[in-house]
Write a structure and sequence with these properties.
Length: about 190
């Protein structure tokens, strides 16, 4: 596993922590090709695991990344990985040990973070994706035009959700990536 492009392009991300299902380089490369430029964006990487999505975005010019995972060993591994890359936690990179829904609610309460791009790659369980998406889209932490990329099993596509517009869907083997956008951003028209 490696960072594909940008200022950290070609750098190895190291081994995968036990219990983490990494997204292949090929799928990440395709995802970023579809996204286009992420220069200057604020990224939220939920269920961060190896941090590959957020690190790829940071390498390609994102101005900040917040990583969230609820596993202490995964967070410890992510901190080491970020340190090996010469990046330290700062205003540009934050790591939060938390359940995704609690982290979203806390970010909303703090009121200082709003995001242009969110990666959501939970364990392949339907409830985690849908419940987390509902909390995310209701939270007010998404900027206007924010995109949310959800990875999940092809055999369990995302059901339609109120307030969410599907921009694109692509299959990669058993994996499905779905690009979403808020169709009625929180606070609009109020």
């Amino acid at each position: 596993m490696r960072i594909i492009a940008g200022r950290l392009g070609g750098r190895e991300l190291g081994s995968v922590p036990e219990g983490v299902r990494p997204t292949s380089d090929r799928v990440r490369e395709s995802l970023f090709s579809v996204l286009g430029s992420v220069e200057g964006l604020s990224i939220l990487d939920l269920f961060a695991g190896t941090g590959a999505f957020g690190l790829e975005g940071f390498s390609r010019g994102a101005k900040e990344v917040v990583f969230v995972d609820q596993s202490k060993p995964v967070i410890r591994d992510l901190r080491q990985r970020i340190s090996r890359l010469g990046l330290e936690e700062s205003g540009e990179i934050q790591i939060r040990l938390s359940d995704a829904k609690k982290a979203i609610r806390r970010l909303a309460q703090e009121g200082s973070a709003r995001f242009d791009l969110v990666f959501l790659d939970p364990p392949y369980e339907e409830g985690d994706r849908v419940g987390t998406l509902d909390v995310l889209f209701e939270s007010g932490i998404l900027l206007e035009g924010a995109r949310v990329v959800v990875e999940g099993p092809k055999r369990h596509p995302l059901p339609p959700r109120p307030g969410m517009k599907v921009l694109d869907e692509r299959d990669y083997g058993d994996t499905k990536l779905t690009w979403l956008e808020a169709s009625n951003p929180v606070g609009e028209g109020r």
